[in-house]
Amino acid sequence: MRLPPARGSITEALFDLLRGPAGTGPPDEVVATAAAGLDDDDAQLALFACYELHYQGFDEVDDRWEWDPALLGFRAVLERRFERSLAAAVPRPDSLDPAGLRAALTALTCPEEEPLLSLFLQREASLNNFREFVMHRSIYHLKEADPHTWAIPRLSGGPKAALVEIQSDEYGGGRRERMHSELFRATLRGLGLDDAYGAYLNRVPGVTLAISNAMSLFGLHRRWRAALLGHLAAIEMTSSLPNRRYAAGLRRLGAGPVTVRFYDEHVQADAVHEQIAANDMCGAFATAFPACTGDIVYGAACALELERRWAEHVMSCWQRGTGSLRAQPVPA
């Protein structure tokens, strides 16, 4: 993956820096003006790029930037402001009795209203709508499970075993062709799209990048490990029904079994993962660390709020008859 086009003063300065030799930090004025609103294109892309150095990286960026002290300081500024934006959008709950954790997670993940986006994709979406949808989703699904895997060395005992069980399924039980990221590549190809890692990074808006950035924030900081567990639990507890609808929508549009398999797999796998995540992982962790129960619920609430904002953006664009992606940059 190559660095995408800059989206403002922050990414312009950051990307110019990353294309050079490691060892010189971002200009002070860039650090001072950095913001990280939940839908800010420039700030979310800058934070995403900083995090990506811990994943696959960028072709033209020296790997030594990953642990460059000055760059980490710049990332910390973005993170602090991102955390404040999350806290403003999602109230931090108090700790609760571990015995009530499952009920709290269930209450969060059972919406009073049907999610409009999954219903639309099932019943009405065009092929172009579906292509847009998977382009957005490619930002996470082509690295599926990776952000949550950061928690494994930070756990022990039952919660660690439970997370490994979930992640083993995400990675195909050791078989490449069954890895969820590979199944999603097949979906992209079946819809006539580019299956390369990061192929659509330059097209997705900040509200999409914020979803991945929250996972990386929680995953890369041990202090957020409980929030990361709650984040994963929320994903697993809200996955089966939407994925069933996505699969039905693709079949309605004539997609074949290879294209649909990613969604079919999640209908089955996540029904099992929901129980493991809520009980064996989060429940056991809460019993061992009662003071962290509030963070577990907070992580789940952040996942759901960012997903809600993203879905609202996509649906509002489609209802207006416009695309939900950024315009294709004109080649230099």
UniProtKB/TrEMBL annotation:
Entry keyword Transmembrane: no
E.C. number: 1.-.-.-
UniProt GO MF annotations: oxidoreductase activity
Keyword check for Oxidoreductase: yes
Keywords: Oxidoreductase
Domain of life: Bacteria
Source organism: Nonomuraea insulae
Protein name (record): Iron-containing redox enzyme family protein
One Pfam family per UniProt: Haem_oxygenas_2
